[in-house]
Structures are given as C-alpha cells and as structure tokens.
From TrEMBL:
One term of GO molecular function: oxidoreductase activity, acting on paired donors, with incorporation or reduction of molecular oxygen
Keywords: Dioxygenase, Iron, Metal-binding, Oxidoreductase, Vitamin C
Domain of life, per lineage: Bacteria
Domain (Fe2OG dioxygenase) ranges: 108-224
InterPro entries listed in its UniProt record: Oxoglu/Fe-dep_dioxygenase_dom, Pro_4_hyd_alph, Pro_4_hyd_alph_FE2OG_OXY
Protein name, per record: Oxygenase
Cofactor section: L-ascorbate
Amino acid sequence: MTVQESTTAAPDAEERTSRVSADAIWRLPVTVCRITDFLGERASAALLERAVAAAYGALAPSTVDGTQVIPKVRRSRSGLLAVPELLEAIDEVLPAVERTLGISCADTEPSYGLNVHNDGDFYRAHQDTRGVGYSANRLLTFVYYLHRRPRPFLGGELRVFDVALPLDSGRAGKWEDRTWQDWEPEHDSIVFFRPTAWHEVRKVECPSGRPEDSRFAINGWLCARPALPSARDDVDPLPRTFKN
C-alpha cells in the first residue's frame, strides 16, 4: 500500500475567510415545545364549551401592545376566561419545558386570555416582548388550542420564524432570509416557546362565520413578578409603575 501526501499548503485564516460568500446566512431554528392531547377529551370538551359561550358574549377587538386596535396588524377578538385546569396542567409539565427551552420560570405568575379567530382573522409577525417597557417581564409564551371537530376552519397555523443572521456582522439582516415552521392549531394541543421568538397567526378561513366554528386559543405568558421596593426606592421622589 502506498501512502500519498499532499504537497498543497493549508490556506491561512485570511484565505479561508475570503472564500466564504458575502451573502452567507446563519440559520438558527427556534425551539418550540408541543404537547398533544394535553387535558384529555373530557376536560378539553368542557373548556371548549365555555370558550364558545364566551364567543357569544362581549369580546373586544384584540389589541397590539395591549392598547392599540390595528386591524392591518391584528384581527381577532379577545376576552377573559378562567382556566384553572389548564394552569394546573401547565405546572405539571413546566420543569420539562424549562429544561428544553433553557429558561427558568421560578417566581413567575401567569397572564392569559381567550383569543377567538373567525373568517379573515390573523395576526402579523410579532414578538411577545421587546426587552423593555410593555411586556418586558414575559419569560415564557404558551398557546393552548381548542376547536370543534372535524375542524370547521382552514388556516390559523402558528408560524414561528427561525433566526437568520448574516455571517458578515457588518451587514444588516433581511426579513426574507428567514425560514419558518408552521404548527397546526390542533384541538387540545399546547405549544411553548420563548417570547422573543418572531411568530404570527396565519389567516383563518371559516366559511360558516359562526362563533362556535372559530379557532379558539388561550394565549398566555409566565411573567416575572415585579421586584419589591427597597428602602432606597421608598424615598425616591419619582413615581414608579409596573405594567404587565
């Protein structure tokens, strides 16, 4: 057996860098935890019945950033709905979710509401937190889905966008560089992901237009509790407020 050795010199660091395309993109998948048959047939049916009753009640147009109704960005209806059985079930799986997403939800409190999407409704790409100001205390997003079966609507997928960053740090990223994963709003399923992830609700087609045929979801977050004021804060002349 003859062993041949290459006489070609290894490229130095500068040569190796120059061979990388200026358009090279890092594509980093965003982790989503999804659990099906979360509450079971009986409990999910009871919760759906309460959600349908709420859909016939006084739900308000959904807002953006908690205050603004912007139909070009978000179109759906929202309201309050007590879901103690859902919160208890989330507590049971939370340790596994924390490990998977690499986060800690110690000393948090839930904030949640019912969202109802019917024909033509959607929510454009957004983040649930921007790091400062409104919603900055959100540590974990969860979405629990409910609907009649067979599913009476089309669309309504949760689209979670991957991170796409230029390899060249001196170049700005482009939105069209992003890839994504669509998650079906399957009855009695729940998804968990970090609030910083970009995501959207795809347009819903509900031919009947009836409230009971809507895409129902319990959207919520586990939020860090506000820090208690210290003795120094007590004498601060400027008022401080906490917004959830």
